[in-house]
Amino acid sequence: MPAKQPASAAAKTAASAPPPKKEPEAPPFEKGLAEEIKKQFGELVKVVFIKPLRIKIQVESRDIVAVATFLRDSMGFDHAESVAGTDYPKDNQIEVIYHLGSYTREDLGAHVLALAARTGRDDARLPTLIDVYKSVEYHERETFEMLGVYFEGHPRNERFLLPEDWADIPPLRKDFRIKGR
Q1: What is the CATH number of the domain that holds 95?
Q2: In 3D, which of 88, 117, 87, 83 has the Cα closest to residue 101?
Q3: pLDDT tens sequence across 46-67
Q4: Which domain holds residue 81?
Q5: Cβ atoms within 10 Å, residue 177
Q6: Long-range CB pairs of 14-20, under 8 A, 24+ apart, other chains included
Q7: How far is CA 162 from CA 116, 154, 175, in A?
Q8: In sequence order, what are the residues at sequence separation of 6 or more whose Cβ sits closer than 8 angstroms to the Cβ of residue 37?
Q9: 84: helix, coil or strand?
Q10: pTM for this one?
Q11: What mean pLDDT do residues 98-117 have?
C-alpha cells in the first residue's frame, strides 16, 4: 500500500482558519436614523458605523455646520455632550468628533450620535459649532488648546488649561514629548 502523503501547509491553514466574521445587522431604529441623514445629505455624509445606541457619521469640514443644524432642528439631537479629537499623524490629519444627544426626544435619550470631521494637521481649522450648540464653547477651546485645531468663528480661541506662555506643540498630538524623557 502506498504511504499517505501529508496535506500541504496551505490546506491545513485553510481547514483550520475560522470562518469569516459576519457583521452584525444594524439595529433598526439606529439604521433608520442613519438613513434619514443620508436621505437629506447623500454623499456629503459617510456613515462610519451603526451600533446599538451609537451612530458615527463623518462629513467634510465645510458641511459640518449644515449637518449639525439639521441634526438639531430636524432630528432632535439638541445638545453636544462633548467634543473630542484624535491625531492621525500618518494621514497628516486631526479628526474632531462631536458627541450629540437629546434632552427633548425621549426615544433618543440614551443615543449618542458622533459627528466627525477631519482637518489637516499643518493648518488645522474647522468651523465652530457654537452657534448650533452653545455647549461646545469650552470643549472646542480645549480641542484648540490640546490638539491645535483653530475653530473659525469661535469667540474665544484662547488658552484656559495650559500656561499662557506655552510655546511647545499641542500636548495631545502624538509627536509631543515631555522634555527630559
Answers
A1: 3.30.460.80
A2: 83
A3: 999 999 999 999 999 999 999 9
A4: 25-152
A5: 10
A6: none
A7: 25, 19, 18
A8: 45, 47, 57, 67, 70, 71, 75
A9: strand
A10: 0.85
A11: 97
